[in-house]
Amino acid sequence: MKRARDFREEARVCMYGKRGALAVIYLVYLAILWACSMIALMPVFGGVLGTLCSFLVTGPLSLGGAVLCLNVLYGEKVEVKVLFSGFNRFVEGVIAALLIFVFVFLWSLLLVIPGIIKSLSYSMTYFILAENPDISANEARKLSMSLMHGNKWRLFCLLFSFIGWAMLCALTLGILTLWVVPYMYVSVAAFYKDVSCQCAASEDNIGVADAAKEKDDTSAGENAADGGKEI
Hints:
By secondary structure, the protein is an all-alpha fold. Helix content is 81%, strand content 0%.
């Protein structure tokens, strides 16, 4: 079973020669969020418009970011326009963001820890949407819960392994985040690829076992029928 360092190593290898481009793309992402926050400073309805704008762009941009990270892993082109590919599925992106926010918020009302656990449970939603264009946001959320069953602690350890990088980012006044955040998200994408492959292999094994069981049952039935004929 892969550990946090394995996912980080895979991300480093796949990001070779692409770190600069990813830093620029992340800067574009931050600029968009900054523009939305500036709208919130407008004297009339600024807070409402700024919040609405942030909410409407966060989901599609997160979906585009998932596509981008998967492209890095699969050796495909890394371009700024990929970040905006999530707007091709604008509705699903917004609904996914809404569902995640609502459920995490409700679980957080109980205690902080349940909210964190649910955040980990829903963390694969955008990656699932990115690779499955025919499913809905809610289906992706449920599939994320299924994928993360028994894997939440592994993801938590992966994210926690970046604590040292987070401290360095603070020392550089946030400048280092332009490289560290893409590194972290590509590592999470590598984690998604691993758990999704494990899930697929598990389903194949279940299918093989069911087929073998069905074959055994059929053989047993035939033997019983032959025995009845002999009697």
